[in-house]
Amino acid sequence: MFRHHGTQGRQAVALAALLALLLATACGAGTTDSAGSGGGKHPTVRIALGVDASYAPLYLAAERDMFAEAGLDVQLMKVEGGPAAAQAVTAGTAQISANADSTALPQMVNNPRLRALGAFQSSGRYLKVVLREGITSPRQIKTMGSIQGIGLYATHEYLRHHGIDPQSVKIQQSGPQEIPTMLQRGDIDAYILFDPWVSKGVEAGGHLAGSIGDFGVTYVQWLIADRKWLENNQELAGKVFKVVAEAGRAVTEDPHAAALAAHEQAQLPVAGTEKAIGEISFESRALTSADVTSSRRIVDFLMEQHLVKSAPDLDTVLLRGWYDQYAG
User: Fold this and answer.
1) What pLDDT was estimated at residue 195?
2) CA–CA gap between residue 258 and residue 199 (Å, rounded)
3) Closest by CA position to 173, among listed 256, 83, 234, 110
4) Domains assigned to the chain
5) What is the rounded CA–CA span in Å between residue 227 and residue 157?
6) How many CB atoms lie within 10 A of CB 232?
7) Residue of 34, 90, 286, 312 with fewest CB within 10 Å of its CB?
8) What is the structure's pLDDT at 196?
9) What is the dihedral of CA 286, 289, 290, 295, to 10 degrees?
10) Upstream peptide bond of 196 is cis (omega within 30 degrees of 0)
11) In this structure, what are the phi and psi dihedrals at residue 222, rounded to the nearest 5 degrees?
12) Measured distance CA(49)–CA(63) in Å, rounded
């Protein structure tokens, strides 16, 4: 009897040790791995990104093992989009994020250690205006749905372009997946978004009324890193960006293959993704004084809306010339 209880005790201890190991593994799965993985051969770089066609180069690079072929251990960390990607870098659960300029800038106010390394795509056509059935003129709009960042900025610019005071229109901020339903219910009269939410709005009875480039708005997607991590990983970040640039060229050359990769990596619809890819320029490049100027306009808007209390030091957070030095 005593021997039987001793066996149970040893089994209990072994089970507890196994559970502790499993818990430690689970808790450590989302943390940074500066020492590397796979026996320490290559440092792990986690890239936080959203789920839509604009991230096609990253999906294609992952699907074709382009990072591994370059001797890199890169993992894509899919988040809900918007500020969540940059917030993952701030939290240390990702080393690099992909963010639109208007989304990244307020995060740079909150965390002045964030650095924009360069641009990997841009567009004035990807985001579109969708109007509710029965709305034939911007002057009829009383309510608009909007996401944070580029969505809110574009919404205000759209209204101003048509001589409408944004303060006279009720702007309801929400997640992109909810906005087409809001349009269908008649809760909003219009919104500005990207696919698949544009197509879903049209399917719900809405109709297209142009793209953001029609009223002078373009957006740029940056790769972003934390200064502290970057200080010790300049060459590594440059190698990652080189693969993204190469993948961007491959997306342009074969949009269908990129759409298939987006479907495999993020379950995006192939036809809609391929169409969206044709509306985006996937050219990787260094940041320039023009980026500083456009960023200053965005920051001015954010401060005007009391969305940020101060402006980031654009000459510090935008690393002009970094791309040419490490990834060009």
Assistant:
1) 85
2) 19
3) 83
4) 44-123+219-326 (3.40.190.10), 128-215 (3.40.190.10)
5) 32
6) 10
7) 34
8) 84
9) 100
10) yes
11) -110, 155
12) 15
- Let me know: does 130 contact 190? Beta carbons within 8 Å: yes
> For residue 18, what are its two tokens?
């196994």
Single out the residue of 159, 153, 158 nearest to residue 173, CA to CA: 153
Furthest CA-CA distance within the chain: 88
CA quadruple 151, 156, 157, 163: dihedral positive or negative?
positive
What are the backbone angles phi and psi of residue 108, rounded to the nearest 5°? -70, -25
Dihedral of CA 182/125/75/85: which sign?
negative
Rounded distance between C-alpha atoms, residue 328 and residue 321, angstroms: 10
Q: Which residues of the chain have pLDDT under 50?
A: 1-32, 34-40
With DSSP H G I counted as helix, E B as strand and the rest as coil, what are the percentages for the chain, rounded to 5? 50, 20, 30
Nearest residue to 301 (alpha-carbon basis) of 162, 193, 158, 191: 158
Q: Which residue has the tokens 């994020």?
A: 97
Q: What single-letter amino acid sits at 115?
A: R
**pLDDT value of position 41:** 63
Q: What sign does the CA torsion over 28, 32, 35, 41 have?
A: positive
CB 43 within 8 A of CB 240: no
Provide the token pair at 276.
């969206």
Per-residue tokens: 158:
């759209």
Concatenate the DSSP letters of all residues of 97-123 into one string.
EEEEHHHHHHHHHH-TTEEEEEEEEEE
pLDDT in tens, 112-162: 999 999 999 999 999 999 999 999 999 999 999 999 888 999 999 999 999
Dist. CA 199–CA 274, nearest whole Å: 13
Cβ neighbours, 10 Å, residue 97: 29
Beta bridge partners of 122: 220, 281
Q: What is the pTM of this model?
A: 0.81
Which residue has 């209880």 as its token pair?
5
SS3 21: helix
Distance from C-alpha of 266 to C-alpha of 55, rounded to nearest angstrom: 10
